[in-house]
Amino acid sequence: MKRELKQMPDGSMCDPTTGEVFEVGRGEGTFVYIPFRQKLSEDWFMAFNLAFEDLAKDKELWGQPTAVLHYLMSKLSFENYIAVEQMEIARALDIEKTRVSEAIRKLLEKKIIERGPRLGKTWSYKLNHYYGWRGSVVNLQQARNVELKPKRKSKLSLVPENKI
Fold this sequence. Notes:
By secondary structure, the chain is of the alpha+beta class.
């Protein structure tokens, strides 16, 4: 039976079916435990505790702005992009479209979301990565270098005090 080996970053070869690692030129091997990674079958995103505390304490967001934010977060795509029409939000939340527009304006003002690229007649949005993230941790670390910062002073360790 022929083995299918994969090359490792250090140049050694690995048999993915057994986890056996072979050093180049020696033919020797070592058992390597590869844990099973369970995949999630539902949509998900990471959220940051202190950011949610800030959101909960902001009385200007109580009510419809919070409902609109929660709906937007339910539509969060990778790299924090959100593509949803305001009319869809209004229908889903059973509120007037003008109230959705006001809530989105407030979320933009407070830099909780930012306006993304235009998709036809609709604007897309992007959730500020200090509040939550959907995507790889590596991409989150890269996104943290972007200028999008919360408007108010925060206790978040992700936002350096001198950068707010």
